[in-house]
């Protein structure tokens, strides 16, 4: 899995296969559907659209369209690395039945077959990976669905970010490796709780969580500032010895609102004696993709190092595959 993590930069620089006749797509609202490692690319598209446009955007992670979606008739983007994710394919079939406009991102499978059958636009990414290992490819793919006036800017941003990641990882003694190894050793067998305070860091926090879940087979949970100060902050009061021994709190920090920055500091003051905390500060540039993938890279490396520490196989997804078999009956 480490080699896939170290390939994130190259993935962001990869030219992808685009369906014949693919042109810019004009929409006022977009519904993005995807699960797991595929769905997080939809979260990236939402992040960009929220920061740079007035487009109404929603990411949905379930089996069906709601009545509101059917009535508002959004443009739909279906993202499934395998092309066979049952939730995503189910919503695609709903969109077909409702005669909604849609497109797809996939490496193949039923989703690409449907796109071809109904003459819909698609981006095809290289196959042969587990979905979570294709995050760079899927991010590069969703960039193609940005409005024309900002699409080229973000294609260039992916290229720049790819070069940046490659430079960071060319020497395995560089700071990013030391940071990730140190965080993994501090987590150990504890449960990681990850707090974020901006749309970007919350997206990354969820990526850290799922990478820790899948690669190291370890528990991790996510909280969002300032919401956690209205409820979860109190959860550290009971069983303080258990909290100290069994949990670790990771604070993902970036260009946060000043009040959020204060809240992070107050959090450490209030509960620092009850749970060990780790501060992870992001870089701050004019390139959203670069900033995003800086933190993503650290989290991915943490999850691989943690898998090594816990002697777990990052590629083993037997529980997920067994669940799929049960669902199919």
What can you tell me about this protein's structure?
The structure is a single chain. By secondary structure, the chain is an alpha/beta fold. It has two domains: 2-166, Glucose-6-phosphate isomerase like protein, domain 1 (Rossmann fold), CATH 3.40.50.10490; 172-310, Glucose-6-phosphate isomerase like protein, domain 1 (Rossmann fold, 3-Layer(aba) Sandwich), CATH 3.40.50.10490. It is built from 14 helices and ten strands. The strands form two sheets. The protein has a six-stranded mixed β-sheet with strand order 1-6-5-4-2-3, with helices on both faces. The longest helix is centred in the last third of the chain and has 23 residues, at 288-310. The protein starts with a helix and ends with a helix. The model has no long low-confidence stretch (mean pLDDT 95).
């Amino acid at each position: 899995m480490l080699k896939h993590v170290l390939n994130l930069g190259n993935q962001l620089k990869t030219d992808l296969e685009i369906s014949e006749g693919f042109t810019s797509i004009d929409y006022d609202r977009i519904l993005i559907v995807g699960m797991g490692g595929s769905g997080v690319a939809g979260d990236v598209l939402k992040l960009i659209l929220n920061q740079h446009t007035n487009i109404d955007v929603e990411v949905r992670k379930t089996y069906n369209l709601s009545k509101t979606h059917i009535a508002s008739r959004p443009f739909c983007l279906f993202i499934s690395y395998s092309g066979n994710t049952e939730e995503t394919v189910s919503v695609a079939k709903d969109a077909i039945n409702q005669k909604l406009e849609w497109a797809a991102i996939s490496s193949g499978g039923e989703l690409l077959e449907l796109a071809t059958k109904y003459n819909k636009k698609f981006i095809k990414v290289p196959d042969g990976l587990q979905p979570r290992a294709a995050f760079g490819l899927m991010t590069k793919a969703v960039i193609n669905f940005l409005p024309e006036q900002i699409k080229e800017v973000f294609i260039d941003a992916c290229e720049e970010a790819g070069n940046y990641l490659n430079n960071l990882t060319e020497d395995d003694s560089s700071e990013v490796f030391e940071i990730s190894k140190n965080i993994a050793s501090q987590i150990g067998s504890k449960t990681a709780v990850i707090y974020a305070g901006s749309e970007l860091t919350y997206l990354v926090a969820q990526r850290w969580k799922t990478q820790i879940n899948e690669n190291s087979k370890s528990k991790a949970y996510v909280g969002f500032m300032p919401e956690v100060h209205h409820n979860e902050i109190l959860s550290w009061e009971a069983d303080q010895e258990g909290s100290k021994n069994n949990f670790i709190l990771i604070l993902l920090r970036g260009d946060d609102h000043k009040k959020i920055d204060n809240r992070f500091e107050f959090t450490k003051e209030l509960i620092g004696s009850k749970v060990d905390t780790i501060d992870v500060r992001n870089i701050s540039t004019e390139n959203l993709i670069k900033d995003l993938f800086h933190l993503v890279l650290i989290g991915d490396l943490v999850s691989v190092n943690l898998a090594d520490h816990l002697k777990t196989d990052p590629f083993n997804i037997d529980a997920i595959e067994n669940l799929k078999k049960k669902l199919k009956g």
